[in-house]
TrEMBL record:
One of its GO terms (biological process) is phospholipid biosynthetic process. GO terms for molecular function: phosphotransferase activity, for other substituted phosphate groups. The keyword Transferase applies. Gene3D superfamilies: 1.20.120.1760. GO terms for cellular component: membrane. Belongs to the CDP-alcohol phosphatidyltransferase class-I family. This is CDP-alcohol phosphatidyltransferase. The chain crosses the membrane at residues 54-87, 141-163, 184-203, 209-228. It comes from the Bacteria.
Amino acid sequence: MSGGEALRRLAGAQKSAKGVSLYSRFVNRPAGRVLAAGSYVVGLTPNQVTLVSALFGFGGIAVLALAAPSWWAGALVWLALAVGFAFDSADGQLARLRGGGSPAGEWLDHVVDCAKTTALHSAVLVAFYRHPGHFGTGSDVLLLVPLVFLLASIVTFFGGLLTEQLKRKAAPGAAAPAPSTLRAVALLPVDHGVFCLVFLLLGGGPLFLWGYGLLGAAAVLYLPLFLAKWFRELSRPAAHPAGRQPAAR
């Protein structure tokens, strides 16, 4: 199969855009589609694409933790994280192109995502600790910002993933719900691709601190909204897979 044919097949095998931000819908997924088609042509497996994503992601994280904060370092961090995020979309698309993924592949994808999220905020913490003057404050309170951001990010990641696993799968052939443009815009502050962009401000010191802090505040404010929504969805009788009843509380 040629790259063009792979792209055409992928275009018709996209996941629903419901609950997806504008960045992921119009930037990351299309970029991942191109990378998935190219990966198919060169013979990569979905798991190998996941590892490529990890290579880019952890490469950017290493620069963030080890290099002195500067404009060039921030640009490099953003580029590595953005490319890694695109490959993270590509692995699932490649799996669908090849006829479906495997439980092991899905497990690897989620473990890598969790590790990257944890390491990324930890690297910000290291940067704040090593270069407090660059960010405009020498207060130890600054170190709490990435810790709180990390907590909100991990709980959101785990809560969303667990909700997806526990909800009843849609019936085959069921029409996907129409995506909401308003919701897609509202989700931009908690989209990973938008988060990657803040590292372009790394050389600006206080500018980065404000950008990172505002996105962290958004993650904290959105978290209870997500949790309440997911709990309501799972509380509906139809949300439980056939044959599985919720444990008594």
